[in-house]
Amino acid sequence: MKILFVHQNFPGQFRHLASALGMGGHEVRSLAIKGTALHGAEVCNYPVSRGSTPNIHPWAGDFETKLIRGEACAAAAARMQAEGYCPDLIVGHPGWGEMLFLKEIWPKVPHLHFLEFYYSPDGADVGFDPEFRLSDWHNLARVRAKNANGLLNLELMDAAYSPTQWQRSSYPALYQPRVDVIHDGIDTDTLAPASAQVANVGPDKLTLKTGMEIVTFVNRNLEPYRGYHVFMRALPRLQALRPNALFLLVGGDGVSYGAAAPKGTSWKNIFLEEVKDRIDMSRVLFLGNLPYSTFIGILRLSAAHVYLTYPFVLSWSMLEAMSLGALIVGSRTPPVEEVIEHERNGVLVDFFDVDGLADRVADVLANPQHYQGMREAARQTVIDRYDLRRHCLPQQIALVERVAGMKA
Question: Which 8-state DSSP code applies to residue 121?
Fold first, then answer.
């Protein structure tokens, strides 16, 4: 079977699926703006010919960007078609517009879409945090307009899958019957607890060992969507309660989600400045973005892993930490509540309860044996529901085979 993957920076979420299909004897290709070939999956990178129009209507700018990307991807597909290539199935991430016009190139080829999130001006991430609420109707209209690309792709897809039930539920009810819930998958064999761990981190190569009071906090970028401001505001109280604890923050100082920080600064610095006169900075290490092996080593040392998020896409890092046996202190928000049952396989706190967060993390550090059963239950949850090889990848492959047999 000929399978074409489409992702702006392939492989993205398709790393394991594309590789498994290629190694399983299928002919696997991919289209990407900036992709990396996998063993068993070749990549065709293509250029984007133009940028967005200056001074375009602000609500239209996002959609124009996706049209430009869709045009570039379709042009690359047309070149492949001219060379005699026709896939049996197209598997793609529609979020950036690349899937928009591929039916014009191969009208009869079915589409399987990976669906991450459908925007809404209420009931999810937008308006959740009163500190950053979009009260002006113009901003809410802009959020609604962001779904133009998503809605077109829902009409185009023949089937889809979404990583969690909550992410699936963000999409219009009309389309949910076409969406399976299958997570990307966690490699629980590799991401397993290990004893007697040692890591040297930070510019001074501080030596960290198993048994130390190490609190970890991970974001792709340190920003409000993932509760960075709440975590920083909890530090003064938490440091007072646990004077020997170390705090390791992994992540960049840019923006992955939501609005950018005011020009000339970053969310990281804004909330650090807010508390730095009340905390011991020698016990707070900003590690930036780390190599994956180093990141995993740090999670293995974690005595308490704090994961906070708006009602938004669930991070891989939380499930990876659970697989490694970390104790999660997470926000009581729908994406987290889908996975963590309070005081069975982790601990939940109100997203905005700064003092409650500090108190609960302090208790985890003070009473590690009380929480050992929760650590073990957390890992078992990931094995039972999100294991890559035993559950998620076989389900993804079965879905690919089923959709490939559809008529578009």
Answer: S
